[in-house]
Amino acid sequence: xxxxxxxxxxxxxxxxxxxxxxxxxxxxxxxxxxxxxxxxxxxxxxxxxxxxxxxxxxxxxxxxxxxxxxxxxxxxxxxxxxxxxxxxxxxxxxxxxxxxxxxxxxxxx
Amino acid sequence: xxxxxxxxxxxxxxxxxxxxxxxxxxxxxxxxxxxxxxxxxxxxxxxxxxxxxxxxxxxxxxxxxxxxxxxxxxxxxxxxxxxxxxxxxxxxxxxxxxxxxxxxxxxxxxxxxxxxxxxxxxxxxxxxxxxxxxxxxxxxxxxxxxxxxxxxxxxxxxxxxxx
Lengths: 109, 163
What we know:
The structure holds two protein chains of two kinds.
Chain A: H1 2-8, H2 13-33, H3 37-61, H4 66-96
Helix pairs in contact in A: 2-3, 3-4
Chain B: H1 2-21, H2 25-45, H3 49-73, H4 86-108, H5 111-114, H6 126-133, H7 138-159
Helix pairs in contact in B: 1-2, 2-3
């Protein structure tokens, strides 16, 4: 375990911050870019996971296990969210026979 | 180690871009699975083995299979022509790029603060996480079962034909 720690020390924490920022931006771009609701849900998962990665990196570099427990709870919430979101998509397909997000704009007015 | 980090990061970013830009929903799911597997590699690099295993089991094993199941159930596996207008798509890319630059500029200012923390992690295995999870975080852990029950009831409510 000591050898692993000394080997990983070569990677600075900044790299993980950059990677998470890039992934979060790609996920946000995908939410704005796509019209397919399932693809939007997938981009949402991408944003979730970039936050998870950043939390794990900070937890490992500050040697505080509470961060990794928090990532575990985020995974629990993500699983529940995906179950509800996919059932909403199934209901949408049944009611309007499409997964186009532009058809669900009646809450705007 | 540094080479491994850059390789995993490149795989993740390329797969994430392909998730956004490829048209077929099945291809989207496959690229997202690849991205999540690379992220499990990152967790192992960060000495968080428990999270890596949970990530592979929950995300690639359960959530992405659920996505695939819904895509096949709704018969969406052909590339449907659902595209926003060109103006919207270009502005989405510009917005994402500007957001990336702003976050990058904001985080670059803080590196003097957290540069003094070296990597010190020896709690990533099941025993280390479990001790914390079942001591200080026992109540939230039990509360998550209530969350799951409510999510299950909600999904069944949405799934019913006539509510």
